[in-house]
Amino acid sequence: MKRSVIGGFLVLVMLLVGCSTKPYVETDYESGYDFSQLKTFKVAETRQDVKENLLISPFTLSHIHTAVDAELAKRYQAPAADSKPDFVVNYHVVVEEKIDPRSYNELYGYGWYGRGYYYPYPRPFFYGVNSGVRVYEQGSLIIDIVDGKTDKPLWRGVSQKRLSRGLSPQKQREILSMAVTEVLAKFPPVK
After folding, report:
1. CA atoms within 13 A on the CB side of 116
2. Counted domains in the chain
3. Residues in domain DUF4136 (predicted)?
4. Which of 23, 118, 124, 155 has a Cα at 20 to 30 A from 2?
5. CB 11 within 8 A of CB 50
6. How far is residue 146's CA from residue 50's CA, in Å, rounded to a whole number?
């Protein structure tokens, strides 16, 4: 009895950890570059000239700029007024509509396993497994780091997260701040 209670508790903990809403972060970088030589940085202003950026509030973009600058200022310095920085940071936000095909059981709801047990009796005609399509928005925060002297790309970090509708601007900025922190935690890359 005691083992089954402990086992059930562990399964519950694993399910809760697996259902966390952390953004997915992916990075790529120039493998032959010596990142230890980077000392100074500058965050470039983003332009709202493409369709995806026009839908993003300029206040949200300003918040991202401030968050990126504050996170990098913990480890790097601003360049002197008359010199170029060692690296320049560009950032982009993209919001895309995605399609998620799902199946659901009308008696027990969404899920892969349906009922979860064998139901030997004839079921009512309106219960059964149906399929449908969900449309949702996925947000991507892309942070690019380029060499300040040659303009060659050095590193890219991407954070992706499914977005909820109806978030307040304050909640959006909290989520973006966490995404900036999580992406830049992977810079510089560990070889």
Report:
1. 6
2. 1
3. 25-189
4. 118
5. no
6. 21
Torsion angle defined by CA atoms of residues 178, 181, 185 and 188, in that order, rounded to the nearest 10 degrees: 140
- Please report, for the domain that includes residue 107, its CATH number: 3.30.160.670
Asked whether residue 12 is assigned to any structural domain, the reply reads no
Q: Which of 129, 137, 136, 132 is nearest to 101 (CA)?
A: 132
Measured CA to CA, the distance from residue 61 to residue 25 in angstroms comes to 19
Whether the CB-CB separation of 157 and 186 falls below 8 Å is answered with: yes
CB 141 within 8 A of CB 176: yes
Q: Within a domain: residue 15?
A: no
Residue 92 or 54, more confident: 92
Asked if the structure places residue 150 within a domain, the reply is yes
Q: What is the pLDDT of residue 174?
A: 87
What's the rounded Cα separation, in Å, for the pair 177 and 64?
Answer: 7
* Confidence (pTM): 0.69
CA distances from 167 to 94, 130, 143, 172, 188 (A): 17, 30, 23, 6, 32
Q: Could you tell me the residue range of the domain that residue 166 belongs to?
A: 21-184
